[in-house]
């Protein structure tokens, strides 16, 4: 009974042929260690596989019929033992567990296995699937996950990738930005000088007009600028004499 319960929680699947190896589907996009490889919006089913070296993410585009089909559609490989259990998952030629390593052979059961998890669109937590990946029909927008162990820990250390419509997975990280009032690195600020010409005066008048000031205020400003310019010119001429 204990073995049966473990097999159910692990999402064991019945293979079409015993000890068969399922290769990535034709045209499948390679999986990545970047969560942004998750499906954007409703473009398909997101696949997450946590291996000892890293957690890998992929997108099975379209509407795969089963969890196993989604796995191969996202660029992974899988192998079943003679009982139909998914005993090993491969990614770009690297398999786990490795056949022959520490005496392990596909079909050996030592209490660890590939557990199968699901997260419906919008969910922030994984749920251990109560049906096998071969029987589970994931919905478009859903995420499925695999992790090798005792079945108690969810893939990606419990985090469900939630990409936005562009395909970029959300994150708590924020990009650095310049403080308010400062210039971006490498830029130079131009010094500001008060207007001292008729063109500047006209510009001030236009700006004041755009801001909704009354005409007499506008012309008062223009007159003040002109008088200031005249005073400057007069002072310069007196010094030259």
UniProtKB/TrEMBL annotation:
Segments for region (Disordered): 143-213
Claim: Transmembrane is one of the keywords in the record: yes
Protein name, UniProt field: MYXO-CTERM domain-containing protein
Signal peptide: 1-22
Biased composition (Low complexity): 173-198
Superkingdom to which the source organism belongs: Bacteria
Organism placement in taxonomy: Bacteria, Bacillati, Actinomycetota, Actinomycetes, Micrococcales
Keywords assigned: Membrane, Signal, Transmembrane, Transmembrane helix
Biased composition (Acidic residues): 199-209
Parts of the chain that traverse the membrane: 216-237
Coiled coil (UniProt feature): none
Record bears the keyword Transmembrane: yes
Species for this entry: Kytococcus aerolatus
